[in-house]
Each structure stands twice: as structure tokens, then as C-alpha cells.
Design brief:
binds manganese (II) ion, about 475 residues, about 20% strand, single chain, alpha+beta, six-stranded mixed sheet, about 35% helix, four-stranded antiparallel sheet, binds ligand BES, globular
């Protein structure tokens, strides 16, 4: 058996142990959102550190700057003259959303039909598992890795990595590397290994629109006084046109459209309305705003507005009242080319201009994240594709991503424009950020095998 076959055989034999470690991590509700106990994020950092140590990494440390959530770092630097790869994932998770809608409790990992259900099972505790398992497979067999690795597991990704710049500046020298592998993305489909070459950015803000200091009897006062809930609805409705396109003036100007060859690649993926409907679960009769490969263009390379939450009035029994105010959280996904600060300003201006009837509006923007795009012409992309194709037994494809990972742009900004390989084990059925998040366990094995191959393929490539 070659060393890589031995490593793969080791993983196959120790899979149950790694699955147990992943379940242990999912049981820790490491939600990084404010209002949730930060001790849980510290506990998941500790459990992650232990797992990395058990896998054989050296110098495993918990990095915690003041007033931040901890990251976990570990390394193995014994491969002389070989390149150094930084492996990234995050250990914080989203809140469970509506707990009553989970078929099994969000923080009780449960296997059903070949999938592991639980918050963070895929996004992104599975990313940690891939790193730990692929490293252990080499270190527990050959006793070494074909390349040097540094592992960084972030603790604040789901809140937009507010302190990442500080971490990267502080630990710059420890983090130097030749390539990075981020295991926090989605495959194009279950079983279809994918390299992500673009990410959208993000701008979010909260808006409150008010007419009164407290609600009034709608019969006694309704009519002459403007309704702030209707006012906010008009403002929100003006953000998109009839075709669902973002209608904020100037916003589209900076968008970098896909090139001819990118469009050809999108077309070759064979997306159709039927597949898109099945995968997303959109209700029958609800129209889509694009067709075929244009669905992918819109998803990956165009901005999109989502009203993440809207509140007005009380929940439960509702009386006949004229409300004092209405509130919404608006999310704007940015296409490659768009700048978060410029877009925050344009969105804010639009809302202020469209606020009707002299209603008072208060807008609180949150920290934005830049979009990112790379062209996969560095030869390391071919190496990664080869390893993925081997590990999955299916040809790897290049895709875009509609989501955001602040790390990529910030890291390249501080440590130089090194090639970034974005992979992951989410799939169209994962339901990340929603209820009943899950991980396909078949793809989990394939992702680990791919990474075991990648370490050897990269060393052999001489890059
Ligand atoms: N893993 C996701 C990014 C992602 C989304 C990959 C969709 C593949 C498909 C990541 O954890 C995430 O959710 N990022 C946030 C970032 C934000 C808080 C700046 C997002 O996209 O909302
Ligand atoms: Mn993630
Ligand atoms: Mn996420």
C-alpha cells in the first residue's frame, strides 16, 4: 500500500471516532450572536483545540483577543522544502431560528437517511472535521504529512468576522502560507465536488420608521395620521423592481459581469428551472426571476435584497391600533465589483429619500463584507480538482457562491494575494441558517478522502 492508501484506510477504520467528535462539537451551542451565552463559543473552541491535538497537530493554541470570540490555531511544519497550506473553517454557528420546526433538537446531532442533522453539522463544524480527520489519517500512519499545514478555526464568522482584521494583524507572521484551503462552501450538488471561485459580499442594516411615541386607537385617530407600517412597506417595496432586480440607483454600476468563458462554464453546469425549484423548495406557482444559466448568474454575480426580518405590532392577539413604529432588517448581497461602504451609503440614501409623509426613520448600518473573485489559472487549481475528482469519484467543477466569507478578502488583503481554494460539504439539501440543517455523510467521507489526496498531490506537483 502507498502511504496515501494507508492514510485513507486509516480514515475508513477511524471514521466512527471522527463522527463522534463531530457530534460532540454539534452538541455545544456555539452561537456567536449577541444575546447568546459566549461561554458556549469558548467551550467549542476548547473542544476544537482538543480534537486538533488528538489529530497530532503541534502548538495547538486558543487565540482570544479582548472582547472577541476565540479562534483555534494548530500546525504541523515538519515537511522540509514542501509548501505550507493554511486550512480554514469556523466553529461558531447560527442561532437555531424557530426551534419548534426542527424534527430533532438543533443541538442533539441525529442521523437520518445518511445525513447528520443539527445546527453546525455542515456549517461549519464539518469543515473542522475534514481538517482533523485528514491530518490524523496521515500523522497516525506515515507519521508525517506530505506538506506543512497551519489550521485556523475562526469563532466569529457568522457575525461577519468583526475582529478578523485585528487577529490577522496580530498573528500575521504565524499565518504565512503558500496556499489556503477554506472548507466552508457548498458543492454544486450532492456528490459533485466543487471549487468556488467567487463569493458575494454583504451589507446589512436595521431600520425603524416611527410616527408616534406609542400606539393609538385606530378608530379614534386613524386616517389623518400616517401609518408607519404602511410607510415602511412602501420603502421596502421600492428597493426592487417588478422583475425582482435591485432598484437602488447607482448600485448596479460597479457589478463585474461574468466573462464569456465564465458564462460558458455556468451553462455547462446544466442548471434548469426544474432543478432549481426542486433544490430550493420554492412553492408551485411562485415565479423565478431567471432561467437556466441566468439563474446562476443572478445567484452568484448579481446583487440581491432580502428582508431578513420585519416587525410591527405585537404578536398573538391584535387589537385595532395605529402602530407607533415599524422595524426591519435589510440584507443586500453584493456582487463581485461592488463595495460595501459605497453600497451602504446608496442604500441608506435610497431609504431616506423614499421615507414618506415626514415619518421619522432611524437607520443603523452593520459592518459590511466585501465580495471576492479569483480566476482559477494558477496550476494549484488543477491539483485541487484532481484530488477532488479522486476523492469523490466524480469530475470536479468550478462554481460561484451566493454567500459570503469575510476571511478570504481580509486574509489576502493582509497576507498577500495567495491562491485560495474554496471547497466545502454543504449541498443543496443542507438548509444552513434555517431549520433542520444537515450534512450528507457520504460527501463527508469523500471530502476527507479528497483532502488526504490533496496533501500528497500538492507535494508531488512540486508547486
Ligand atoms: N458557509 C457560509 C458561506 C456560504 C454560504 C457558503 C452559502 C456556501 C453557500 C458562511 O458561514 C456564512 O453564512 N457567511 C455569512 C457571512 C456574513 C455574516 C458576513 C453569510 O453569507 O451570511
Ligand atoms: Mn460557514
Ligand atoms: Mn453560515
Amino acid at each position: 500500500m502507498t502511504p496515501r492508501d494507508q492514510a485513507i484506510a486509516h480514515y475508513d477504520a477511524h471514521r466512527p471516532g471522527h463522527l463522534e467528535s463531530l457530534k460532540k462539537l454539534v452538541r455545544i451551542p456555539s452561537v456567536s450572536f449577541s444575546g447568546y451565552d459566549p461561554e458556549n463559543v469558548r467551550a467549542s473552541a476548547k473542544a476544537t483545540a482538543q480534537w486538533l491535538r488528538d489529530s497530532g497537530l503541534h502548538n495547538v493554541e486558543i487565540w482570544e483577543l479582548p472582547d472577541t470570540y476565540p479562534s483555534v490555531y494548530g500546525e504541523w511544519l515538519g515537511a522540509k522544502d514542501a509548501p505550507t497550506v493554511l486550512l480554514y473553517a469556523h466553529h461558531d454557528v447560527q442561532p437555531p431560528l424557530r426551534e419548534a420546526l426542527w424534527n430533532s433538537p438543533p443541538f442533539e446531532p441525529t442521523e437520518r437517511n445518511g445525513r447528520l442533522y443539527g445546527r453546525g453539522s455542515a456549517d461549519d463544524k464539518a469543515g473542522i472535521a475534514v481538517h482533523a480527520a485528514s491530518i490524523a489519517a496521515w500523522l497516525k500512519t506515515a507519521g508525517n504529512l506530505p506538506v506543512n499545514v497551519k489550521v485556523l478555526i475562526e469563532g466569529e464568522e457568522e457575525i461577519g468576522s468583526p475582529n478578523l482584521t485585528a487577529y490577522l494583524k496580530h498573528y500575521k507572521d504565524r499565518l504565512r502560507c503558500d496556499y489556503m484551503v477554506l472548507t466552508d462552501c457548498a458543492n454544486y450538488d450532492t456528490g459533485k465536488p466543487s471549487l468556488t471561485t467567487s463569493l458575494r459580499g454583504l451589507v446589512t442594516l436595521e431600520i425603524t420608521v416611527s410616527a408616534l411615541n406609542s400606539p393609538l386607537h385606530s378608530g379614534m385617530w386613524g386616517g389623518p395620521i400616517p401609518d408607519p407600517v404602511s410607510g415602511l412597506c412602501k420603502m421596502l417595496a421600492s428597493l426592487t423592481n417588478e422583475k425582482g432586480r435591485v432598484a437602488v440607483s447607482g448600485l448596479m454600476d460597479a457589478v463585474v459581469p461574468p466573462s464569456k468563458s465564465e458564462l460558458d462554464d455556468f451553462r455547462a453546469l446544466g442548471m434548469s428551472e426544474k432543478i432549481f425549484r426542486e433544490q430550493s423548495g420554492v412553492l408551485d406557482g411562485v415565479r423565478l426571476f431567471a432561467e437556466n444559466e441566468e439563474l446562476l448568474v443572478q445567484l452568484w454575480r448579481q446583487p440581491a435584497i432580502s428582508i431578513n426580518a420585519f416587525r410591527a405590532g405585537g404578536s398573538g392577539a391584535v387589537g385595532n391600533v395605529l402602530m407607533d413604529s415599524a422595524w426591519a432588517r435589510i440584507g443586500l448581497r453584493l456582487a463581485p465589483g461592488m463595495d460595501p461602504e459605497v453600497c451602504t451609503r446608496m442604500l441608506t440614501d435610497h431609504l431616506q429619500k423614499t421615507c414618506p409623509w415626514g415619518l421619522k426613520s432611524e437607520i443603523v448600518p452593520e459592518q459590511g463584507a466585501k465580495p471576492w473573485k479569483t480566476s482559477p489559472d494558477h496550476p494549484v487549481f488543477e491539483v485541487a480538482k484532481k484530488s477532488l475528482t479522486r476523492g469523490y469519484g466524480s469530475d470536479a467543477v468550478c462554481i460561484g457562491c451566493g454567500g459570503t466569507i469575510p476571511f478570504v478578502d481580509q486574509f489576502t488583503g493582509i497576507l498577500g494575494d495567495i491562491p485560495a481554494l474554496l471547497v466545502g460539504i454543504e449541498d443543496p439539501r443542507t438548509n444552513a441558517h434555517s431549520e433542520n440543517e444537515s450534512l450528507d455523510l457520504g460527501d463527508f467521507d469523500k471530502a476527507v478522502r479528497s483532502q488526504i489526496h490533496f496533501f500528497a498531490d500538492l507535494a508531488e506537483s512540486g508547486l
